Amino acid sequence: MSGVIPSKILTALILTWNEEENIARTLSHLGWLEKVIIIDSGSTDKTIELIQPFPNTVIYTRKFDTHAQQWNYGLSMCESEWVLSLDADYILTDAFIEETKKNLQSNNISAFNARFEFLVFGKALTGNNTTPRPVLFKKAGCIYYDDGHTQRLRINGNEENYTAKILHDDRKPLSRWLGNQAAYSQKEADMLLETTSKLSFTSRLRKTKVLAPAFIFFYCFFIKGMIFNGWRGWHYTMQRTIAEILVSMRLAEDKIKNDRK
Q: pTM of the prediction?
């Protein structure tokens, strides 16, 4: 499949909120699509201004409530058979784009999962602890649901994996990341406290309130090789560790409050 992909076949879907550091770079790699739908949560920076020069974009504004609700609203705006679900800091390589075009011809596959190459200040790390996620899927029968601070896609059908990776290149300032973690950690802690079903290994570590931060530091810095990535590797490792510390603090706070009752 060559040329521009018609919007009846594939639409890209992106959520934004104050993404002026990222959005133009992401959109510059989507010119092969006839239509890119942006669901904006009320950006107050230059995000909308930076989107407008791209002629294949359509912007909708919706007040944010949850990630799943925001993504599902975006799906309702898509009229295509396939949806390419992207974050505002995802950069698509030529190899990924070509593989996507081939995947569109699949009849018995409902979703394709992508892996990520993590960049810090524009330079790739040798590894990361991100997990694959479905980014290309048939709209029919697929819906998002909330899971802690993020969302997951419920898929109706078979799945396969991409060979090519997506570049994850978030260049927002550290202050923004720290602000986001305040809310994310609360949602993750609430999910752990409310879940009564069998927990994953990571979730069981988190519920100890002690082991998860130490484990994630060791896992990122040594197992994933961040020690060989200089200060970028240290930056990534500390971000992941701080995120786990905040969740641990939320759980400890809940324990303290309950003990005082």
A: 0.94
